[in-house]
Write a structure and sequence with these properties.
It is built from four helices and seven strands. The protein has 190 residues and is of the alpha+beta class. The strands form two sheets. The protein has a five-stranded antiparallel sheet, with helices on both faces. The longest helix is centred in the last third of the chain and has 15 residues, at 162-176. The chain is globular.
């Protein structure tokens, strides 16, 4: 089932999310719905707050990037990179910061360069509640960091300079008021 994606201005996007256990109601159905929602909106990551839930859960599917020439050197890694992250905790961020133009399904029509570290070590549970501690680099690390920010109540626009924040403020106000055209199911703040 495709769920409505919460737009900038919705209070749930600013909440620090809480851990869940393996008995969370209808967890597998929720994960499937999140994947379906993400795919229908042509996204590569989606966090639970973006569908209105303040829980530490996000999904990532980087397979669409495997066909992009820009990622030819890591295409094999991206092709099968479809993961569920439950109760995730980034343990370490290392390497040089690199800029990349990011966007967000909750903030349509806004894209800006964001600096992030190139490598992360993250601890998380998968959809079967098997615990993992993995190291990721390149686009995998970047997308995970973006989604991880969501479960911490942080949006990519929070990483912008003061000047850039001022420049996008008008667009953010329009999004919060529902004055934006999207081709996916979206719920705007009241």
């Amino acid at each position: 089932m495709i769920l409505p994606i919460r737009a900038f201005g919705d209070a749930v996007l600013r909440k620090t999310c809480h851990n869940i256990d393996q008995d969370y109601p209808d967890l597998h159905e929720l994960i499937q719905n999140m994947y379906e929602t993400m795919e229908s909106a042509h996204g590569i990551g989606l966090a639970a707050p973006q569908v209105g839930l303040d829980i530490r859960l996000f999904v990532v599917d980087l397979s669409p990037l495997a066909e992009d020439e820009d990622y030819a050197d890591i295409a094999e890694e991206l092709k099968n990179f479809k993961k569920v992250f439950i109760n995730a905790k980034i343990l370490e961020e290392t390497g040089d910061e690199w800029k990349f133009n990011e966007g967000c399904l909750s903030i349509p029509e806004v894209r800006e360069d964001v600096k992030r570290k190139e490598t992360i070590v993250i601890e998380y549970y998968d959809e079967n509640f098997v615990k993992h501690t993995d190291t990721f680099s390149d686009m995998r690390a970047r997308v995970i960091q973006h989604e991880y920010d969501h479960i911490e109540g942080i949006l990519f626009t929070d990483h912008l300079s003061s000047l850039k924040k001022k420049l996008v403020k008008g667009k953010l106000v329009k999004i919060a008021h529902g004055d934006v055209a999207v081709n996916y199911k979206m719920r705007f703040p009241k």
